[in-house]
Design a protein that fits this description.
Blueprint lengths: L1 H5 L12 H13 E4 L2 E4 L21 E5 L2 E12 L9 E8 L8 H10 L6 E3 L7 H11 L2 E3 L8 H4 L10 E3 L4 E3 L8 E6 L5 E6 L2 H4 L13
Parallel strand pairs: 6-7
Antiparallel strand pairs: 1-2, 3-4, 4-5, 8-9, 10-11
Helix pairs in contact: 3-4
Amino acid sequence: MLLSMLYGAHAPTWLRHIPAVDTLRRVWLQNFYLDNGMDHWRHAGNIPPAGVAICSPFDTEARYNIKRQTAWTGYKVHLTETCDVDTPHLIVQVMTTVATEQDNEIVADLHQALAEKDVLPREHLVDQGYSDSQILSDAQNTYGIEMVMPMRAATCRQAKTADAYDLSHFHIDWEAQRATCPAGKTSASWEPRVDKYGHAHYDVQFNTSERLWPMPRAQCLYPL
């Protein structure tokens, strides 16, 4: 009723621009809808994604998130601490993001912030949430940082299929630009390319005759 009056034809338009009124409108729309003049709760499939859903009218940027067994409404805080064994450990950077932002999305901004302070590390130890092959490459090429991190497990069909071969079964010789499959066959071509995001990739192809023997076709991962 209040919103109907505020947005009615005879209400002063300046009322709609009051921040608290706009917050009320957004919260109401995210949680309810009108059907034949009746209010109804929204349910799964008819609610906004976590990245935009307002969880608290008192803090419209706080978001809900869950990580393993921990669930919270608020933000993420990323701490960077020195860890040399022969010097004191100091926190040199603190970054706060919305709770729904992926950990690996902040690494580039973090390295830029560290560079501006002239406190870039030689090695950067991070957990798996920050791991990404592009991050590893960019950190080395842009700042000369060696990223030390556990890479995420492969999720392709071959990694989940018994007796199949995923990328981890292939030996990659970066200097020679050559890949060797589990059967000992070497790649016939190695073509660099850049995707639409500007990230470097490599298409590695094997000869068809070598790919089929001695491994069955269903076991091979191609192209790399």
